[in-house]
Structures are given as C-alpha cells and as structure tokens.
Amino acid sequence: MSRKGSTVGGEMPFLDHLEELRWRILWSFLAVGVATVVGFLIVHYLGVLGLLMRPIRPFLNGTDLLFFNPTTPFFFTLKLSLIVGIVLAFPVVVYQIWVFLAPALKPEEKKIIVPSLYFGMILFAMGVALAYFAVLPLALRFLMGFQQEFLAPAIEAGLYLGFVVRLLLAFGIVFELPVVVMILSAMGLITPEFLKDKRRHSIVAVTVLASMLTPGDIASTFMMIIPMMVLYEVSILLSRIIYRRKKEEELEPSRDPPPGAVETS
Q1: Can you give the residue range of the structural domain that contains 190?
Q2: End position of a domain, from candidates 85, 104, 123
Q3: With the C-alpha atoms ordered 135, 88, 103, 262, is the resulting torsion angle positive or negative?
Q4: Same domain membership, residue 112 and residue 98
Q5: Secondary structure of residue 156 in the 3-state scheme
Q6: Any domain includes 23
Q7: Does residue 58 share a domain with residue 150?
Q8: What tens digit of pLDDT does each residue of 4-37 get?
C-alpha cells in the first residue's frame, strides 16, 4: 500500500487510509453489482428456482407453487440474484479486505488467515449442501405431515422460497465457525483455554441458535446442533495448533540483525 503520501517509515497517513478504504469499498460494491447481473442471468436461464422447488415437488400433488401478487416472481428473482451475486463476488470482496488489512498483519498471521479464507468457502458449501440434501427434505416431510386429512397444501412461492434460502444461508454461515476461530486465534483474541472453558456455555448457545434457525422439528434442529458442536471441537483443535505454532516461532532465534548492527559482506 505504498502511496505518494506515505511517510518515510512506510506508514500511511490517516487521510490516505480513509482514501484507501473508500476505494476498497467502491471496488467491492462494483464487484457485487457485476456479479448480481451475472446472478440474474444464472437464476433466469439456468433454472435455479426449479432447483429450489425440487424438495417441495413431492408434496404438491402435481401442482405448482402459487403467488398472489404479480410482482412476486420478479422481486424474488432480484433478491435471489443479489444473493447469488454476493456469493460470486465474495472472493473479490475478501481480496479487497485483505489488501487493506494485510500491511497491518504480522507474517505469521498472514500464513494462517489466507488459508482459512479458502477453508471458509469449502465449509460454506458443505453447510449449504447439508441443508439442501438432508435437512430441507426432512423438515418438509415433518411440516407437511400434519392434518393432511383436513387440509390441502396451497403453498405461496415467495414464502416457500424465502424459507428455503434462509435455511440454506443459515447452515452455510454457521459452518464458518472454525474460520472465525482461526482468524481470532491468529490475532491473539481467542485462546484454546478460553474455548475449552466455555464449552458448556457453547452447548446452550448452539441449542438456542439451532432452535431459532431451523423450522422447529426436533430432527432438523439436531442436524444443526450436532455439526455445530463438532465444528466447535474442531475449532478448539485448530486454535491449539495455531497457538503451538506461534510459540514455536517465538522460540526460534531471529535471523534479522539487531538494530544498529553493521552488515558485513
């Protein structure tokens, strides 16, 4: 981040920091805007709505989803395009954040944070896949199994698709827990001892969170609780590994010459 207004020591003045931040934000919004246009084309031409409707098809008795407002299909397509655009632009946004923050990070922190960001993309995809292939069909089977002898399903498209998207995003986001712990551990804000001491509190927090994010049936709630607790234990292990590496690097003798030393050729 070298600029003309930088000081001799390489530190950027405060106003230059604000200017740099402004450009990073603008580039991020531009990336999201372009990716949203691409997302609209993907949603409209590649049948993303059909993919989201596939789990509910067995319960519709050969009918389609209903909508009661002429604007519902259009505005939901826009909302879904924005979500797809944010997902597609996520690497660019992360890059802009990284370029802005990287000069303030230590080399050992960079070695941990960069792989963790790629790891986070994999975890997000795993969470979405678990929700789509396992949790969503199970939740629909549970919810649609009540009072079938008295009630006929007339499912509104906007409500159903909003429910599906919220569930997929919820699982994708909660699967990011190890990434958050890795970054906080690399920055020294969380220790493995702290995570171990808060294990009982985490069980309560995870149970409450899963009850709020899942449709309400016990099976889908447990299908979120169990992976989150496994991820919490994985987070403790990753935090311990990070702190062990940091201690080993601190014990290694520095190869840099002491201040004021004269280098010999």
Answers
A1: 106-250
A2: 104
A3: positive
A4: no
A5: strand
A6: yes
A7: no
A8: 444 444 456 767 778 888 888 999 999 999 999 9
The CA distance from 144 to 208, in Å, is 24
Q: Is 69 exposed, middle or buried (0-12, 13-18, 19+ CB in 10 A)?
A: exposed
pTM score = 0.77
Residue 7 forms part of a structural domain: no
Neighbour count for residue 85 (Cβ, 10 Å): 22
* Structural domain total, the chain: 2
Displacement of CA 199 from its chain's centroid (Å): 22
**Cα–chain-centroid distance for residue 153?**
33
- Helical H runs in 175-217? 177-186, 192-197, 199-213
In a domain, 20, yes or no: yes
Does 34 lie in the same domain as 128? no
Cα dihedral 222, 228, 230, 231, rounded to 10, equals 160
Decide: residue 78, CB within 10 A, 0-12 exposed, 13-18 middle, 19+ buried: middle
